[in-house]
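Notes continue from the previous slide.

Worked example: a multi-chain complex. Inputs as given:
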Amino acid sequence: MRDVSIIGIGQTPVGEHWDLGLRHLGYQALRQAMQDASVDYADALYVGNMLSGETSGQAHLGALIADFAGLRGIEAVKVEAACASAAAAFRQAYIGVASGLQDVVIAVGVEKMTDDVGSTLTAGLASAADADYEVIHGLSFVALNALLMQRYMYEYNVTREDFAGFALNAHANGVFNPNARFQKPITHDSFMKATMIADPITLLDASPMADGAAAVILCPTEQAREFTDKAIQIRGSAVATDSLSVHDRRDPLWLQAAEISSKKALHQANIAPTDLDFFELHDAFTIMAALSLESCGFVERGKGTWPAKDGQIALDGKLPITTRGGLKARGHPVGATGLYQIVEAVQQLRGTAGENQVPNARLGMTQNIGGSGATIITHILENNN
Amino acid sequence: MSTQIARHWRLNSQRYQLVGEVCPNCSGKIFPPRDVCPHCADKERQPDYQFSGKGEVYSHSTVYKVPEGYEEAAPYTVALVKLDEGPLVTAQLTDVANEAVNIGMPVEMVTRKLKTQGDEGLIVYGYKFRPQMVAS
């Protein structure tokens, strides 16, 4: 196994790109990343995407984007793991380089959600859950998370208000991210009065859908200096799975796959959770942020909302999260989100996160969640220059 | 219109009667049926098991923005129901006001219309749960 580093990053703004299709979005992020890394070739391309078949009538994104990017001929495939598709593509790129089979590899996550925002999109997103035993009963993806949040509130005697800090923090950070879908703060009052989607989840508990693409270039750490002096090393990389449906979990309020993948990644990096300078978690819904903090060992069971209430998760807190807006404010172009998290972590570690900069950030963790916890992918990145 | 008749037909005994399985190795009750026991990973063929259809609400949510094909009953309440025999199932609640639902409420299985596809499409039937009827 070889050590692997990230030598280039790229991203498009997250938003409604009515003038751009899948291939254009993917290429924009990919080109930026290649320019950033000063490379003009690659051995392979892994494309993370969830919904292209449903919303664009387009499968086969590996060949499509490789060709559009002028890389016709290289190895290229699409990787799908619902909302965790982009981290899954990144993980494949990492394996390609670490194994010694490939040297310079591109991972790009791309999602085009605004071409068909009605029932097709809702049904597409719900396909992350169990079609025969969850979705057929009229559950949207939001409803599944609402079932978790309702039970959580009952078991730990917390209210919806206790989750407000996650949304407020994300929006406060999104203000300074020029690529964020929402660059404005929200108030506690607006959080409390937000429109109900699936009780107890409101519009301001949920992340917004959007178009977007993000990309990175990987190469062996020992070759990284040939390309750049700002390489960021991948210190941990792990994927774990759980039952697809919530009802089949041993314990619906425990993200087993978060526990397993974060433990593995922390072990690989030989660090403890307290060594991390920040954590880009998967706040698709506020409940997911709380469950993720508990399952990864940052707080005790049942206390997942506590860090949201005392400033711990702010940029100058003990454990900054969603430092550039998270899924809530940056936006959640589902199959691209995992690579936005990686790109933002690299910005933090390079010290180029602007107003969102976490002081002296050297070690960061990212976590991308597919479905309501069925696939969870954790990465640990380090600036060891 | 895509009706996917076989996809729904092959689940009829589960959807209409709540027929699951019992593991010959660990005696765990299994719903929905699967080929490998989720409790002990036993791979023997599991005999059918008729669930009683009784249980209690483990969690619930009233859904205001509903998927296509489900508009008729909107807004409706979905739930995780803890069956008396052990497993959790995901289903809609019926014959109860949304605001009257609470965690721990005893419920029982009934067969109802799950989904429609316009005037000419397939109507999918299956289990929902209602408050347990008490003999007076």
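Summary box: Residues 46 and 96 of chain B are 35 Å apart (CA to CA). The longest strand of chain B covers residues 54-63.
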